[in-house]
């Protein structure tokens, strides 16, 4: 997949083979089998071009990484503890990237007007989850 993502365009088995052969010896049939397996799993789509195929990634590398993280997280018997442990492994730069990502995906919640009140209050524009700033503090509270 790394080679397919690298070009960010449809590629042939021959192109991937020639790129891989710069680093190691590998057979054409091996590359062809791997790309066919990726196609069978739904990670690449292919289009016939003469007697060969051109393969193209179905999703981005970021989406693939997100799916892997989601899969691993969903298999945990204690997702909150898994996240705390994961955050604890992050560098400060990674934690900052996480804070930035959380700000991007958060949508301010709006309060529906009630009969008792005609005013509405908007949620803070970028509320930060309590333990993202310091994942160790969540661990101190039992990982909940």
- Major beta sheet, strand line-up: 1-3-2
Helix content: 40-55%
Largest sheet: 3 strands, antiparallel
What is the string of SSEs from the N terminus onward?
HEHHEEHHHH
Number of helices: 7
What percent strand?
5-15%
Counting DSSP E segments of at least 2 residues, the number of strands comes to: 3
Secondary structural class: mainly alpha
Point out poorly predicted stretches: 116-144
Radius of gyration: 23 Å
Overall mean confidence score, pLDDT:
81
Described by its quaternary structure, the protein is single chain
* Straight-line N-to-C gap: 36 Å
Summarize the structure.
By secondary structure, the protein is mainly alpha-helical.
Note down, in words, how this protein is organized.
The structure is a single chain. With 144 residues, the chain is mostly helical. 50% of the residues lie in helices and 10% in strands. The protein has 7 helices and 3 strands. The chain has helices at 2-7, 13-20, 28-40, 61-74, 79-89, 92-105, 135-140, and strands at 11-12, 44-49, 52-57. A 3-stranded antiparallel sheet has the order 1-3-2. α2 packs across α3 (28-40). The longest helix is centred in the middle third of the chain and has 14 residues, at 61-74. The radius of gyration is 23 Å and the shape is elongated. The chain starts with a helix and ends with a helix.
